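Adenosylmethionine-8-amino-7-oxononanoate aminotransferase
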Amino acid sequence: MSVSRSAALAARDLAVVWHPCTQMHDHETLPMLPVERAEGVWLHGYDGERWIDAVSSWWTNVLGHRHPRIVAALKDQLDRLDHVMLAGFTHAPAVELAEALVSVAPPGLARVFYADNGSSAIEVALKLSFHYWRNLGRGTRTRFVALTGSYHGETLGALSVTDVALYRRTYAPLLLEPFLVAPPDGPSRRPGETVEGQVARSLAELRELLQAQADVVCAVIVEPLVQCAGGMRMYPPAYLAGLRALCDEFDVHLIADEIATGFGRTGTLFACEQAGIAPDLMCVSKGLTGGTLPLAAVLCTADIYAAFYADYASGKAFLHSHSYTGNPLACRAACATLAIFRDEPVLARNRDLAAHLAARLAGLADHPHIADVRQTGMIAAFDLVRDRARGLRFAAAERRGLRVYRHALEHGVLLRPLGDVVYFMPPYVITPEQIDHMVAVAVAGVERAAAD
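Structure:
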């Protein structure tokens, strides 16, 4: 009997590749999915299979796979310059991208430092904030404030400001200890409490912390509006505005982790815009290149940049680097991505798609196995539960979300639940009809997963 192309490649893979965020033993029974090509919203296998990429390949592919403008830009750039180090050298794509980012970023962000991925960007931002205070002679500032349930990456610095035990527990002896404050999201709202009251309570908790600890705090770090890998926990823009005011009052930095929330995901180009605020440092990655190549950037204020600008002998330089910092191919892809946002009504289309998704989700409010249906722009999520009416959840060890994943693959949709949190974060080229299918498959998967 002949072996299919997909099965043959999967077997070769399992002999040599160690996959990210995976217990490899699972693949004794969990199918590996070889992908041959991609186009728009679709991932295509080797044997005629295809799946709607409902999670944008870990939230990177905002404009659809192989967008023709990005592909053309990459082909042109490859004929010119593939790579050169950015220490002592420069090139047009790095300069043009920095100019474009500064022009569309929240006001006051004036400088761009490149990195390779989201976790690396968080490392840069944390180090910049700490080093800034040290350069100013305020070396007692060594701590960071993060939100409960937060996730900012898996390198040691990024993990230090992450509050997800699944990722953090093993490496705790190696990590910094952040101060944690609760955001005003749905799960932490008290019975009878209004959203406004919850925001005020959460900000009062942060105020109390900063009153006691501001002299040792470098920065507050948050994912604006949506804590994505932390369970798609969502909070209102008013909380961001309050954060900005408290950071100003107590003279600490505000770091906005827009790695997952940037480039249109929440309804605006950057989530911070919805609160009318500008952070001191902003990290971007994922959708920056339209999901084609790894690249990240940290934007900072002129004030932060000035604290490092001195004679070399002063010891104030920011000596941080990556070999592929500002890679020309990645920068060119990012320039093309920003040009698409500039030239085409991407955000306007997103509002229409988000409204359609909201209408499709509205009917799930009374589903017996679905709780806390929530949405911010083109990010939507709900919890898979044993009994919504009685507030009963499944034990995490049962891995019911994995059953939803399996069901979705059988019906042409790639979903990747976060535990029992089922979420949708599709490319912006998805159609209303594909949204209908995506949600219908997810709901059928929930019903199948919830069955004993």
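The first helix runs from residue 5 to 16.
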